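Cont'd.
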Amino acid sequence: MNGVTAVLHKELTNYFQSPIAYFIVAVFLLGTGYFFIDHVFLRGSASMDTTLQSMGILLIIVVPAISMRLFSSEYSGRTIELLMTLPLRKWEIVLGKYLGAFIIFLIMTLTTCINLIPLVLYGNPDILNIISGYVGFILLGMACIAIGQLFSSLTENQIIAALMTWPVLLGFWFVGKFKSFQQTAWLRSLSDYLSFSGHYGDFLRGLIRSEGVIFFLAVTTIALILNTAYIRGRR
Amino acid sequence: MSNQPTLISVDSVTKRYGSKEIIHNISFDVKKGEIVGFLGPNGAGKTTTMRMISGFTAPTTGRVFVAGHDMSHDNYEGAKKIGYLPEHPPLYEVLKVRRYLQFISKVKRIKRSRVNSELDRVITACRLEAVTEKEIYKLSKGYRQRVGLAQALLGDPDVLLLDEPTAGLDPGQIQETREVIRTFGQDHAVLLSTHILPEVTLICQRIAIINEGRILAVDSPEALQSASDKTNNVSIELSGDHYKLEEAIRATDGVKGVKFAPDKNKEMYFQVDCHVESRDGIESELARVITTHGALHSLSRQKPTLENVFLKYISDGTQPKEIIQ
């Protein structure tokens, strides 16, 4: 695990030494702030579920901006030659990088909790529902970052990495909508099962279902395993 | 040297990218206490070979061992024994020099109690004292190269792989860097790639000449020079009748070419450059012929320079694009 913490530490320093992390957090905060004001103050709803629903879509747009540089910048900066020849196991590189991006995402998520203050002060929100929503949001973020990191490992061009990640994440988000067009039962249940918005919707309704938790963790694990296999195969 | 353990062993290695074969069945060893120069023109396959030894890429066929660890399959254990400076120093631009070296120390599992002294050691050896708190993107090319060298030296690895370590340095820095490598090479194994000829003669005990993915020769600079005396020239100072002497020398068996240059200060005196075959005894034959037709003042057989040797070895294929004297 020593290798993981070394890579993680390097990643975090790298994020905070450049303006990227601050910029992404700022954009995300602005977006969530807008949704919060719109849903809570303008529509008078003392709950976070509609804000969290919008935050999910915003997350899918923002995640590629966090993940696109994870491997692409190592390729273009030729530092991949260093990482691959230091005494680091390939999974340590993948996990260290992933945790670095995940911590940035967690910081981003924590900053949105500022919205809860007026909600608790002036309303009577369902706290358990909010907790369940945030658990879903974090699980959704975990899966999205892992997919973004996988695509980042496929190209040295950060923009191409982001352009590959967006359609895939949007595909996972909207795949549930295709359910009504499917004739065969297994295709219907497959599009339902693969739907990010479907599983996330359960969390927003206050349901922490093992199916949803396992789904997001499985997507994360599969993406990280493919990522490790790919960089090992590059040799 | 022969009883020292082999730390780098390249055994019948071939590298193919698609259908293109970049490295063709190469083999060589580097022992502890040895500095071996990997010499070849640009595009000869030096970097690809370095990358295979470092474990960055795997050979298509054949095997690479570093300190007994097979690098062809999994380079994790072998990587603990290697300090590697790639062709382009792999630096994280936004990190400060000290922070970057701390990251490398952590990955190399240098004990916490030793980290600071180890950092100070490489910072001093690579003359980085003035820039330790500077971000890497602010550094000049020479400093960047030295930060790359410092990361390779961290942890005192058994094997040092240096791909063109003096590229981008000024003459003073080149000398300092060579001194660092020479000192390090005394009890480690160093493989150093370069296309700068004086570099190998100055610091390497052995040279591996590579061209178009093939190792053409591996030996000490002296052995390569003496084995390559086919290009020998004989320098002669003589006096007498120009035409008679030139005719006689040209007629001597084994002489391939003669060039007479008159001595400006003395009449009938000449400087003669004679291109001869490699076999022994030509000097005495020339001396006999010259003394028959005139007076011989000096005669010496010149050894080929390393540049001649290098050119001879690679002239069967492509001529080198760039050789820096």
